[in-house]
Protein backbone atom coordinates (compact mmCIF):
# COMPACT_ATOMS: atom_id res chain seq x y z
CA UNK A 1 0.00 0.00 0.00
CA UNK A 2 1.31 3.42 -0.97
CA UNK A 3 1.28 5.82 1.90
CA UNK A 4 1.41 9.57 1.92
CA UNK A 5 5.00 9.37 3.20
CA UNK A 6 6.00 7.08 0.30
CA UNK A 7 4.47 9.49 -2.21
CA UNK A 8 6.28 12.39 -0.57
CA UNK A 9 9.62 10.57 -0.75
CA UNK A 10 8.97 9.63 -4.38
CA UNK A 11 8.10 13.23 -5.22
CA UNK A 12 11.30 14.44 -3.55
CA UNK A 13 13.36 11.90 -5.50
CA UNK A 14 11.78 13.00 -8.77
CA UNK A 15 12.46 16.63 -7.94
CA UNK A 16 16.13 15.90 -7.15
CA UNK A 17 16.48 13.88 -10.36
CA UNK A 18 14.99 16.73 -12.41
CA UNK A 19 17.31 19.27 -10.78
CA UNK A 20 20.33 17.03 -11.39
CA UNK A 21 19.44 16.52 -15.05
CA UNK A 22 18.86 20.24 -15.62
CA UNK A 23 22.21 21.10 -14.03
CA UNK A 24 23.94 18.53 -16.25
CA UNK A 25 22.29 20.01 -19.33
CA UNK A 26 23.34 23.53 -18.33
CA UNK A 27 27.00 22.46 -18.17
CA UNK A 28 26.78 20.65 -21.50
CA UNK A 29 25.24 23.60 -23.37
CA UNK A 30 27.74 25.96 -24.96
CA UNK A 31 28.08 29.58 -25.98
CA UNK A 32 30.28 30.35 -29.00
CA UNK A 33 32.47 33.45 -28.86
CA UNK A 34 34.28 35.07 -31.76
CA UNK A 35 37.38 36.95 -30.72
CA UNK A 36 37.24 39.21 -33.76
CA UNK A 37 40.54 40.98 -33.02
CA UNK A 38 42.39 37.71 -33.66
CA UNK A 39 39.97 35.85 -35.90
CA UNK A 40 39.44 32.97 -33.46
CA UNK A 41 36.24 31.25 -32.44
CA UNK A 42 35.78 29.06 -29.34
CA UNK A 43 33.10 27.67 -27.06
CA UNK A 44 32.55 27.89 -23.31
CA UNK A 45 29.83 26.32 -21.16
CA UNK A 46 26.61 28.28 -20.89
CA UNK A 47 27.19 28.36 -17.13
CA UNK A 48 30.31 30.53 -17.53
CA UNK A 49 30.07 34.10 -16.35
CA UNK A 50 31.77 36.47 -18.81
CA UNK A 51 34.24 38.67 -16.92
CA UNK A 52 36.35 40.21 -19.71
CA UNK A 53 36.08 40.33 -23.48
CA UNK A 54 38.55 42.87 -24.83
CA UNK A 55 41.32 42.90 -27.45
CA UNK A 56 43.80 42.21 -24.62
CA UNK A 57 42.02 39.48 -22.68
CA UNK A 58 39.08 37.11 -22.59
CA UNK A 59 37.98 35.59 -19.28
CA UNK A 60 34.98 33.53 -18.26
CA UNK A 61 34.31 30.89 -15.65
CA UNK A 62 32.08 29.02 -13.26
CA UNK A 63 32.57 26.75 -10.25
CA UNK A 64 34.14 23.92 -12.34
CA UNK A 65 36.14 25.56 -15.15
CA UNK A 66 37.67 28.87 -16.20
CA UNK A 67 39.08 30.15 -19.47
CA UNK A 68 41.51 33.02 -19.92
CA UNK A 69 42.95 33.99 -23.32
CA UNK A 70 45.64 36.50 -24.20
CA UNK A 71 47.40 37.64 -27.37
CA UNK A 72 51.11 36.91 -27.62
CA UNK A 73 52.86 39.39 -29.87
CA UNK A 74 56.14 37.66 -30.60
CA UNK A 75 56.11 35.63 -33.80
CA UNK A 76 59.75 34.60 -33.33
CA UNK A 77 58.98 31.96 -30.67
CA UNK A 78 57.40 28.55 -31.09
CA UNK A 79 54.21 27.57 -29.29
CA UNK A 80 56.28 25.35 -27.00
CA UNK A 81 58.65 28.20 -26.12
CA UNK A 82 55.65 30.49 -25.54
CA UNK A 83 53.84 28.24 -23.03
CA UNK A 84 57.03 27.01 -21.36
CA UNK A 85 57.96 30.62 -20.63
CA UNK A 86 54.49 31.49 -19.35
CA UNK A 87 54.25 28.40 -17.13
CA UNK A 88 57.74 28.99 -15.75
CA UNK A 89 57.04 32.67 -14.98
CA UNK A 90 53.79 31.67 -13.23
CA UNK A 91 55.72 29.26 -10.98
CA UNK A 92 53.65 26.25 -12.01
CA UNK A 93 54.62 22.60 -11.61
CA UNK A 94 54.56 20.82 -15.00
CA UNK A 95 52.59 17.55 -14.95
CA UNK A 96 52.29 16.65 -18.66
CA UNK A 97 52.89 18.33 -22.00
CA UNK A 98 52.59 17.74 -25.70
CA UNK A 99 51.83 18.95 -29.21
CA UNK A 100 48.41 20.49 -29.89
CA UNK A 101 46.36 20.62 -33.07
CA UNK A 102 42.78 21.84 -33.30
CA UNK A 103 40.65 23.55 -35.89
CA UNK A 104 43.58 24.60 -38.06
CA UNK A 105 45.86 25.74 -35.23
CA UNK A 106 49.14 24.10 -34.35
CA UNK A 107 50.46 24.61 -30.88
CA UNK A 108 51.66 23.16 -27.63
CA UNK A 109 50.01 22.41 -24.30
CA UNK A 110 51.23 22.00 -20.73
CA UNK A 111 49.12 20.61 -17.90
CA UNK A 112 50.31 22.09 -14.63
CA UNK A 113 49.50 22.62 -10.98
CA UNK A 114 49.97 25.60 -8.69
CA UNK A 115 51.24 25.31 -5.13
CA UNK A 116 49.01 28.29 -4.26
CA UNK A 117 45.81 26.68 -5.60
CA UNK A 118 46.09 22.89 -5.11
CA UNK A 119 42.40 22.24 -5.88
CA UNK A 120 42.80 23.27 -9.54
CA UNK A 121 44.71 22.03 -12.57
CA UNK A 122 45.78 24.37 -15.37
CA UNK A 123 46.04 23.71 -19.08
CA UNK A 124 48.25 26.24 -20.83
CA UNK A 125 47.79 26.08 -24.61
CA UNK A 126 49.86 28.14 -27.03
CA UNK A 127 48.42 28.65 -30.52
CA UNK A 128 50.35 29.64 -33.61
CA UNK A 129 48.31 31.63 -36.12
CA UNK A 130 49.86 30.98 -39.54
CA UNK A 131 48.19 34.10 -40.97
CA UNK A 132 49.41 36.64 -38.39
CA UNK A 133 52.42 37.80 -36.40
CA UNK A 134 50.21 37.76 -33.31
CA UNK A 135 49.70 34.38 -31.70
CA UNK A 136 47.75 33.69 -28.54
CA UNK A 137 47.53 31.43 -25.54
CA UNK A 138 44.74 30.09 -23.39
CA UNK A 139 44.68 28.98 -19.79
CA UNK A 140 41.91 26.56 -18.93
CA UNK A 141 41.64 25.74 -15.24
CA UNK A 142 39.46 23.00 -13.89
CA UNK A 143 38.70 21.36 -10.54
CA UNK A 144 41.37 18.78 -9.81
CA UNK A 145 40.09 15.20 -9.65
CA UNK A 146 36.65 16.14 -11.02
CA UNK A 147 35.91 14.08 -14.16
CA UNK A 148 33.08 16.37 -15.25
CA UNK A 149 35.32 19.45 -14.95
CA UNK A 150 38.10 17.67 -16.87
CA UNK A 151 35.68 16.67 -19.66
CA UNK A 152 34.37 20.23 -19.95
CA UNK A 153 37.93 21.64 -20.03
CA UNK A 154 38.94 19.10 -22.66
CA UNK A 155 35.95 20.01 -24.80
CA UNK A 156 36.79 23.72 -24.49
CA UNK A 157 40.42 23.04 -25.43
CA UNK A 158 39.38 21.54 -28.76
CA UNK A 159 36.84 24.25 -29.62
CA UNK A 160 39.40 26.80 -30.86
CA UNK A 161 39.29 27.43 -34.60
CA UNK A 162 39.73 30.31 -37.04
CA UNK A 163 36.61 32.36 -37.74
CA UNK A 164 35.37 31.37 -41.17
Describe this structure in words.
- This protein has 164 residues and is α+β, with helices and mostly antiparallel strands.
- The protein has a single domain, classed as Protein Transport Mog1p, Chain A (3-Layer(aba) Sandwich).
- The chain is built from three helices and ten strands.
- Strands 3-4-5-9-8-7-6 form a seven-stranded antiparallel sheet, sandwiched between helices. Strands 1-2-10 form a three-stranded antiparallel sheet.
- A hairpin with a 4-residue loop joins strand 3 and strand 4.
- The longest helix is centred in the first third of the chain and has 25 residues.
- About 8% of the residues have low confidence.
Q: What are the defining features of this structure?
A:
about 160 residues, seven-stranded antiparallel beta sheet, 10 strands, about 40% strand, alpha+beta, three-stranded antiparallel beta sheet, Protein Transport Mog1p, Chain A
Give the secondary structure arrangement, pairings included:
Elements: H1 4-28, E1 30-35, E2 40-45, E3 49-53, E4 58-61, E5 65-72, H2 79-89, E6 93-102, E7 105-113, E8 120-128, E9 135-143, H3 147-157, E10 161-162
Antiparallel strand pairs: 1-2, 2-10, 3-4, 4-5, 5-9, 6-7, 7-8, 8-9
Amino acid sequence: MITRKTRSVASMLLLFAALFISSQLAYSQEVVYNWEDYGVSFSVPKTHKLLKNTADEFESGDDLTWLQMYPFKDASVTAKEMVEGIVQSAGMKVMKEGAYKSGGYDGYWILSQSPKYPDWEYWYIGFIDPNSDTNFYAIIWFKKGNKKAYDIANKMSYSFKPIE
